[in-house]
């Protein structure tokens, strides 16, 4: 009987150690925080992000700098002509040209769509509807959120650009 008890006791110690190492015994303060902003975002990204300096596309007869197919703009360094692009989980329909839509005091894609390209001198946007719905927008202002590039980007939490005011360095950011 003593041998059975020692065997069970050893097994309990090993099981407890495994649970603690795996995080099952951690206090709530020690556990990673759940990112509510990402969970609430209706835009769905794959996690792939690229800095793009050379992709061109033709939309509505106008050739411009665009993110690669399937990607949306999440930031831009206009003087270097570099975009930060995040891959969308899915898209709906083709890219289309917006030559003058306005929202939040700036040129913007129609509500529900996101920027995939920009022609600064013609003030043209290449827009596309993501496969998931946009539910909110905010204006990221001057000086704006910056990443390590450094470039102006939409804030964390699953946002993509949906509009831009080039001269005021303002982005309309949607999720």
Automatic annotation (TrEMBL):
Q: Which UniProt keywords apply?
A: Signal
Quick one: signal sequence residues?
1-22
Name of the protein in question: Lipoprotein
């Amino acid at each position: 009987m003593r041998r059975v008890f020692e065997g069970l006791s050893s097994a309990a110690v090993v099981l407890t150690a495994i649970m603690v190492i795996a995080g099952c015994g951690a206090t709530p303060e020690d556990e990673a925080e759940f990112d509510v902003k990402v969970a609430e975002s209706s835009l769905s990204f794959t996690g792939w992000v690229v800095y793009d300096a050379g992709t061109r596309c033709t939309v509505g007869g106008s050739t411009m700098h665009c993110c690669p197919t399937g990607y949306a703009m999440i930031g831009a360094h206009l003087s270097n002509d570099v975009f930060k692009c995040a891959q969308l989980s899915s898209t709906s329909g083709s890219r289309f040209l917006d030559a003058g839509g306005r929202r939040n005091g700036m040129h913007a894609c129609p509500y529900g769509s996101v920027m995939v390209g920009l022609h600064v001198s013609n003030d043209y946007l290449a827009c596309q509807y993501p496969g998931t719905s946009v539910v909110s927008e905010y204006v990221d202002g001057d000086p704006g959120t910056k990443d390590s590039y450094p470039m102006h980007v939409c804030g964390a939490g699953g946002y993509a650009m949906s509009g831009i005011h080039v001269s005021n360095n303002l982005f309309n950011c949607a999720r």
